[in-house]
């Protein structure tokens, strides 16, 4: 009986955790500083955003980041790796969020294909696990779909959806479907130095959110990024230092009702 009660408690905790899952979405420092405009901005961290856009990554890239959530104990660590070919790309992603007593793991792999210079599409498979000390672990699985279309060198659209089929291991009481969500966005390259992006997103049971962000290449070695989102209202800023094959990036998310949330990342292009 005690084991059964623990399973039901774990199931309830996982359900409410999934509702708040959006807060732990990790898109890397660049996209985060652009107010999480992940639908139409290509980056190595697109493996966890719109996976179709990894077809625009020109070199194999390995990236790591560390994200604080107000306290030293509560943090997120992630690794993203993209291997591009001529028109295809493979992406791999790993994430750990939480503390020793309560933590989440996520592992993703994505395959993306591009037709010409305009249309790209990707499928992503995710495995996630929630672990609570003394209560055990709960797994979940999901397939995601990503699309991208470039109308020109300056303007492009992106669309992706997370877990559209609401997959769930029904025989296991500890298993619960990841929440479904959809993201639609566009990006516009104003000049060789300035790009803007905007995204409209919706997550199950949480309504719509919209955001806009900017990426400004201030110098060959320095990038400045900033953005705002409406639900919840947050403003973001960050910068990136570029040196040959290395990229060091920083982002900060600020919410008037919560503590600041800094993030730092490093990437190497092979």
Give your account of this protein's structure.
By secondary structure, the chain is mostly beta strands. It has a single domain, classed as Porin, CATH 2.40.160. It is 9% helix and 54% strand. The chain contains two helices and 14 strands; from the N terminus they run ααββββββββββββββ. The chain has a 14-stranded antiparallel barrel with strand order 1-2-3-4-5-6-7-8-9-10-11-12-13-14. A hairpin with a 4-residue loop joins strand 8 (181-189) and strand 9. It is globular.
Layout of helices and strands:
Elements: H1 2-19, H2 28-33, E1 61-68, E2 75-84, E3 88-98, E4 102-115, E5 119-132, E6 136-150, E7 155-162, E8 181-189, E9 194-203, E10 208-219, E11 222-229, E12 234-243, E13 246-254, E14 261-269
Antiparallel strand pairs: 1-2, 1-14, 2-3, 3-4, 4-5, 5-6, 6-7, 7-8, 8-9, 9-10, 10-11, 11-12, 12-13, 13-14
Task: Kindly list the characteristics that best describe this protein.
14-stranded antiparallel barrel; 2 helices; 270 residues; Porin
Summarize the structure.
The protein has 270 residues and is mostly beta strands. 9% of the residues lie in helices and 54% in strands.
Q: How many DSSP-defined strands?
A: 14
Indicate how many domains the architecture comprises: 1
The CATH architecture? Beta Barrel
Taken as a percent bin, the fraction of beta residues is: over 45%
* CATH hierarchy, class: Mainly Beta
Structural category: mainly beta
Detail the poorly predicted runs: 1-23
């Amino acid at each position: 009986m005690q084991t059964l009660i623990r399973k039901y408690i774990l199931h309830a905790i996982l359900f409410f955790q999934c509702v708040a899952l959006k807060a732990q979405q990790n898109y890397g420092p660049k996209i985060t500083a652009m107010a999480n405009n992940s639908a139409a901005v290509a980056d190595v961290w697109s493996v966890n955003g719109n996976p179709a856009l990894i077809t625009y990554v020109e070199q194999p890239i390995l990236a790591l980041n560390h994200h604080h959530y107000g306290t030293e104990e509560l943090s997120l660590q992630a690794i993203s790796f993209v291997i591009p070919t001529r028109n295809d790309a493979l992406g791999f992603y790993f994430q750990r969020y939480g503390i020793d007593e309560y933590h989440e793991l996520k592992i993703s792999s994505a395959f993306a294909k591009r037709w010409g210079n305009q249309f790209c599409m990707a499928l992503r498979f995710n495995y996630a696990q929630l672990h609570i000390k003394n209560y055990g672990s709960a797994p979940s699985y999901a397939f995601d779909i990503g699309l991208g279309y470039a109308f020109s060198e300056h303007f492009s659209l992106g669309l992706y959806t997370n877990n559209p089929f609401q997959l769930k291991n029904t025989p296991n009481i500890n298993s619960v479907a990841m929440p479904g969500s959809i993201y639609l966005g566009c990006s516009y390259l104003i000049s060789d130095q300035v790009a803007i992006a905007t995204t409209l997103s919706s997550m199950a049971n949480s309504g719509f959110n919209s955001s806009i962000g900017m990426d400004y290449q201030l110098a060959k070695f320095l990038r400045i990024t900033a953005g705002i989102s409406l639900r919840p209202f947050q403003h973001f800023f960050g910068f990136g230092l570029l040196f040959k094959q290395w990229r060091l990036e920083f982002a900060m998310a600020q919410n008037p009702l919560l503590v600041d949330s800094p993030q730092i990342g490093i990437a190497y292009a092979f």
